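Reopening this ticket.

The earlier resolution said the output was attached, but the attachment link was broken on my side. Pasting everything inline this time so it's all in one place.
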Amino acid sequence: MTHLSRRSALALASAAAVAPAAASAQTLRSFSRIDDKGRQVTISAIVRGKGPLVVLVPSLGRGAADFDDLAARISAAGFQTAAVDPRGAGRSRGPSDGVTMFDLADDFGMVAKGLSDKPAVFIGHAHGNRIVRALASKRPEQVSRLILLAAGGQVKMEPEVQTALSNVFVTTLSPEQHLAAVKTAFFAPGNDPSVWRGGWYPDVAAGQSAAGAATPSGEWLDGGHAPILIVQAANDRVAAPANAEALKKAHPDRVTVVTIPNAGHAMLPEQPKLIADIVINYLKSADVR
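Inline output:
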């Protein structure tokens, strides 16, 4: 496992300097298909930039807006990004009953196919890491590389953390109780959880959780055969470092782990520039085309 030193972080920052998020123009695109049960699925994505395609898949019950900063930085570095809203978030719509992780994965694969005829890089944050691993397992021809931000799914959480994660989606909590749950589950000590006070989709989370329960983890856990970069937050209590260690041990030839300090499961609002620097450096060093 690679622990990012201050010197490494500064080197990455120098190598991957990008324009601020506000500098990147964006368009909202929609993509539709009929699923295998004859039901319509329409998925929307915020598309930025030109170049090799990078598709971004958000966390459980969260939307594409979580990637506003990261996607803008990646697109400014010479890539096209598509930050995708899952079913039920934004303008994305689709059934939630009788759905597996592979059905959800096909939503994001549909967006990628609509934007490029080449395999894409997929970035999955938290629950999104499971979805992109499912896509790479089912449709390896669509995936060139995976970048997993918070690669959970193998190691059980502490009971306190599991309760907090569940409470995040309980709509009857007071604002103070909800924010306390967000802080416990998602943020490192000392970091401000109020940036994630909003942006939650309880119905989306319920559908995603049901899809996960309907899909044996062994069918998606390995992420196909694609090279994988895991960005592991040192203070993540939901996707603890042992998860990244297990995937690295199982696939040492294709899994790289970089651990970042002062970040929890939320990660993106806690260390936005550092994560962007790591991701962009990886994309460029891997010569993604």
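Reporter confirms the inline version is readable. The longest strand covers residues 26-34. The chain is about 35% helix and 20% strand.
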